Amino acid sequence: MGKTNWKELFPTRTSVFIFIAYMSLFVAQGIFVTASQEKNNSYKYDTVTLVLLTEALKLIVSCILYCRENTAQSLVTNVIKGSNVLMLYLVPAALYCLYNNLAFHNLSVFDPTTYYLLLQFRVVITGILFQIIFKKYLSRKQWISLILLTLGCMIKQVNFGDQAISNGSKNEQDEAIISKNTVGFDLSINAVFILIQTICSCLAGVYNEYLLKNTGQDINIYIQNVFMYLDSILCNALILLVQGNILSAFNIENLAEIFRPHVFIIMVNSCAVGIITSFFLKYLNSILKTFASALELVFTAVLCRMFFSIPIYINTILSIAIVSISVYLYSQSPVVNLPKSDASAKRDFEDRRALLTEEDEDDILQMNEVIIKKS
Predict the structure, then answer these.
(1) Cβ-Cβ contacts under 8 Å for 73 (sequence gap 6 or more)
(2) What pLDDT does 138 receive?
(3) Tens digit of pLDDT for each residue in 259-283?
(4) Nearest alpha-carbon partner for 25 in 37, 33, 15, 13
């Protein structure tokens, strides 16, 4: 095998930080949501309200980050000026809205490790969409790594005699999995829900990257986040309206449950996930995003064993091993997708300077030169 091209995979030191932060926050999200469930795996709080408030928090944070170097008046002016792009963001916002709300349901049915494994079926779909939208055709090695990753996820369905790698008692294991699906897809409506969530993830991720790097390439990244979160708030409000919960969603009892520390931390973590995802798609790409999700499996499996006594079976270990091999293959030939125009290159350069530290100056200059040459 060839040498891993780390410079191409992670252009700057901060891109490494973005990758690690993204992966860590997603692992934490599955753990926090599972920990907030009742014994019957239900939630005492309204999950749609929590998602809506999370989007509102993301909106506030994005506005604050933008106003650190700009005026509030320019924020309003740029939002009005980019109203056409704001409308385009309704598509990924609606998809992410459905994705986020389905996540709570699916995590009440599946244990976090199985949940994240099943979501990895999105990689091939993402690869196809990446080719269609960006016309960046994947190489044979890239397709092999994608297919290998999918096969690794499918191994989770194979029963190897249910031999668990565990340090807990059998009673602990039985209690942990009594009402959770730890195997994978079954012939039920839950399989449909996880498939819908997977498709939403694929479409939203690639379309959002398209807006960040093409249609909205000259718009400040924080303004683009404002567009996304405004539309997301609207989509979640519509769900509450359709459900007839628009008033009860904000009553004292529900808000008291949401702002309890162990639930409020879900909101804060989700906010951080949303912000870091936008930078991930801006400076890396949606293909690498799927592999970050794959690496989460290792940490999720270990943490679930530690906190919830969920056993680690042989098929889980094999799945994670195959997925890890596919990650290594991909690292040797990563997809590089840079913004197209000179104006975009300038905006990308300015955004990077605002984000990175002084020790990244050399990396920034080198990346700017590469972007301009490829524009």
Answers:
(1) none
(2) 76
(3) 999 899 999 999 888 778 777 867 7
(4) 33
96-153 confidence digits (pLDDT tens)? 999 999 999 999 888 888 888 777 777 677 777 777 766 777 788 878 887 887 787 7
Cα-based distances in Å from 69 to 140, 275, 306, 354? 44, 17, 43, 9
Contact between residue 266 and residue 104 where contact means Cβ atoms under 8 Å apart: no
Strand partners for 164: 313
pLDDT for the residue 290: 61
Contact 364, 12 (CB under 8 A): yes
Query: What are the distances in angstroms from CA 279 to CA 168, 179, 283?
Result: 40, 37, 6
Instruction: Please tell me the predicted confidence (pLDDT) of residue 230.
Output: 95
Q: What is the pTM of this model?
A: 0.73
The pLDDT tens digits of the residues spanning 51-70 come to: 999 999 999 999 999 999 89
User: What pLDDT is stored for residue 343 in this prediction?
Assistant: 46
Mean pLDDT across 342-369: 50
Q: What is the pLDDT of residue 176?
A: 44
User: In Å, how far are 40, 51, 107, 114, 317 from 190, measured between CA atoms?
Assistant: 16, 20, 11, 13, 24
- The contacts of residue 47 (CB under 8 Å, 6+ apart) are 101, 104, 105
